[in-house]
Amino acid sequence: MRMLAVFEKGERIRHIGHLDIQRSVQRGLRRSGLPVAYSNGFNPHILVTFASALSTGACGKREIMDVTMAEDVSEAVFLEKMNKAMPPEMQLSEARAVDRKHSSLPPLLRAARYDLTIREEQYAGKLIEAIPKMMARETIPAMRKTKTALKECDIKPLIYDLKGEGNHLYATLVLTEREACKPGMLTEALCREAGITDEVRVLICREALLGENEQGMLVPLEIL
Amino acid sequence: MNLNDKIERALEKVQKAPRYTGGEMNTTVKDWDSCPLRFGFCFPDTYEVGMSHLGLKILYGLINRESWSLCERFFMPWTDMMALMEEEELPLLSMESRHPLNAFDVIGFTLQYEMSYSNILAMMKMGGVPLEARERGERDPIVVAGGPCAFNPEPLADFIDAFMIGDGEDVMTELNRVILERKEKGLSREECLKNLAKLEGVYVPSLYRVTYHENGTVAAVEPTCPEAPASIRKRVVTDLNSTYYPEEFPVPYTEVIFDRIMLEIMRGCTRGCRFCQAGILYRPVRERSLEKLVDLAEKLQASTGYEEISLSSLSSGDYSCLPELIRELMKRMKEKRVSISLPSLRIDSVLKESLEETQQVRKTSLTFAPEAGTQRMRDVINKGVTEEDLLEKVRDAFEGGWSSVKLYFMSGLPTETTEDLDGIADLARKVVAEYFNVPKAQRARGLRVTVSTSVFVPKPFTPFQWAAQDTIETVLAKQEHLKQVLNIKGVTFHWHEPYVSFLEACFARGDRRMGAVLKKAYEKGCILDGWNETFRFDRWMEAFRECGLDPAFYANRERTKDELLPWDHIDSGVTKAFLWREKEKSERTETTKDCRKGCNGCGLQRWKGVCAYANAGGV
């Protein structure tokens, strides 16, 4: 059996990179004493994968780990033992037991919902005002960072939804194995639209990872 | 702008932010306002170094365990963070509750390495604590320090209010109680310091007057009040089984240098290597019982989730039931996929059997420390290891499937000649030959022999405490020679820069006047001296010049038998007479037997019931 578990990456540890988060989850699983499955080989590791890597600097409300169990355990026991074993900044909120044959999560991933806090509050109003103007454009050019260079791309088709309130932007953006609109690409485009040239610091919080149900609606990935 | 905003701004710009963010598993955040005594544990080096240190884990757990005290951690920020902190006007903050250093009742520095001294000043400065003890007022924290370098406290005497000498477990709580009493009764700083001086193993330097001869050597170190003892006797924890050891360690999110469970199987060493300061300071040898260790290992594994346990001590091969311990740990840890490693493997330990067992979980490179290249030189330093011993162990390792071997040597040992240096290359060549003697089908591929030589630094409380260190010129010439003779296929040669070792030698055997040099160098921007990229030797030399002191006086001068050494008022348990005897024996190339084979009369026999191998009659 596999356990899909929803966990938080808290604000205090948002600068921890994905590899370190992976190792922390591995160690948490070891501390929990849960019957997890190990890989074979010289350096055995626990069979745990993640729906999506979260960038260094971003926090996450509903990140998802996918743990292969050596023996069946109940969701309640899994949650209880893991929450004792994980630090306060990485607590779990939900778990769902699925069959070993359940699809792995990354291919099901379609989008992510973000809460972006604008640190320089004086710019929040201007940015929010610029949303309809930007969304009315036929294309929204943005710069995408690849390993070697910056490439121009159009993020218009990658934005499901974008709203603003107070000093927050709420965005649902495409996130699949093949393409993604990173929150930074969106805020840069929006700053350009609003004519802001100063650096605007944004706290990125990924609120949910989303997949598509049979009706083609975006729903939380972990319930698919 | 509030504090958290400033911190966030700095963290967004800094490299390796997780060094500064805390929140790790098994860290303790107690309620600040309701806790009577607040201890700031300061590790004067980076997070990655400090979080690898066992002493931090012991004292952190020990102080937090008491209901009336809390312990929070401080580390030395890297230069980029220091610049950002200055920009944001941020003080040095604790990892746990983000309180500034000067908000604590007592701050304690651990002294592991002389080259971290400038970081102590930097941390106090950033934390709003006056640098010199005499400048501190009633509201400032009491600044304490302990660890191996506290055995020669004099170079830091200007900056530290009280030193703890010897094992810290018992004295730490006693010291905190005295400081709590001050707080509760509203005693003055001076009264508090005098009360601290009354504790066994505590040295309050401001209560002593140091005078010097015209030639610069120390004339006298005299107490100036009745509370201060003329001689400060180190603390010894006699029974490790009943002594506090943490059952959980903080587990960093990021990788640190020693990212594993450290199981201290014993303290002290009976070998008597003459260059080794730890071998004297941590006397007598004391073992934890097998049962206690197995119990601790299981608890620590369950609380940390670490994948590896390392058995730590000065000489793990000497642990009396090592094969049984390893077998028992392997048995219990196998299912949990935990590997067992032995870091300070001595080459004369009977370990073949255990080695094969370790291998069943994971294979790592093996480290041997012959220390010197010829038998004569090894006899001078009383390193009781022969070439046959070493080659036999290496052969076993190669036959057992290892292909990577590290060999550690020192250069610059007293009486060293070119022949001794050539001996290092000979030994390396023989190690390579052992590898090729193993049939090709049987040995692992990819031979890697790494030879590292460090520059010998004479340390206080060793038989070489009177010895001159090689000058930088001599060291460079010797390294050049080594580079040539060690140009061997399959062998990589690493050497240490002599400049850091030279400065280390100045502080290791420095007197109180070194405090002025330290302060001057710090003012010139010297910090993080243990790191190549930040070490500024030229500024240190300027500081010496401006203070009118000659570094060669400390590093390169041979002392006479009757010279009063700056640390002679500290009693390590081992007498100066024993050390001098050992020095004379080394000059005659005479070895001294392991204490387990009979008492050598080092001085610990004076303290009843402390050393298991002591012969009360002495030798």
What is the total tally of β strands of chain B? 19
The average pLDDT of chain A is 95
Number of domains of chain B: 4
- End-to-end Cα distance of chain B: 69 Å
Percent helix range of chain A: 10-25%
Structural class of chain B: alpha/beta
Query: What overall form of chain B do the CA principal axes indicate?
Result: globular
Give the number of DSSP strands of chain A: 11
- Please mark out the parts of chain B with pLDDT under 50 across 5 or more consecutive residues, or reply none: 346-350
What does this entry look like structurally?
- The complex is a heterodimer of chains A (224) and B (619).
- Chain A has 224 residues and is of the alpha+beta class.
- Chain A has two domains: 2-105, Pseudouridine synthase I, catalytic domain, N-terminal subdomain (Alpha-Beta Plaits), CATH 3.30.70; 109-223.
- Helices cover 23% and strands 33% of the residues of chain A.
- Chain A has four helices and eleven strands.
- In chain A, strands 1, 2, 3, 4, 5, 8, 9, 10 and 11 form a nine-stranded mixed sheet that branches. Chain A has a two-stranded antiparallel sheet with strand order 6-7.
- In chain A, a hairpin with a 2-residue loop joins strand 8 (159-165) and strand 9.
- The longest helix of chain A has 15 residues, at 18-32.
- Chain A starts with a strand and ends with a strand.
- Chain B is α/β, with parallel strands linked by helices and 619 residues long.
- Chain B has four domains: 3-233, no CATH class; 260-363, Transcription Regulator spoIIAA; 365-513 and 549-557, Transcription Regulator spoIIAA (2-Layer Sandwich), CATH 3.30.750; 570-606, no CATH class.
- Chain B has 21 helices and 19 strands.
- Chain B has helices at residues 3-13, 18-21, 47-50, 54-65, 79-87, 117-126, 168-185, 189-197, 278-281, 290-304, 322-333, 352-359, 375-380, 387-399, 418-437, 472-485, 498-508, 514-523, 537-547, 551-555, 576-587, and strands at residues 37-43, 69-75, 106-110, 142-146, 162-164, 202-203, 208-212, 218-223, 232-233, 261-264, 266-267, 286-287, 308-312, 339-341, 366-371, 404-411, 448-455, 491-495, 570-571.
- Chain B has a six-stranded mixed sheet. A four-stranded parallel sheet of chain B has the order 15-16-17-18. Chain B has a three-stranded parallel sheet with strand order 10-13-14, covered by helices on one side.
- In chain B, helix 6 links the parallel strand 3 and strand 4 (142-146).
- In chain B, helix 15 (418-437) runs parallel beside helix 16 (472-485) and helix 18 (514-523) packs across helix 19 (537-547).
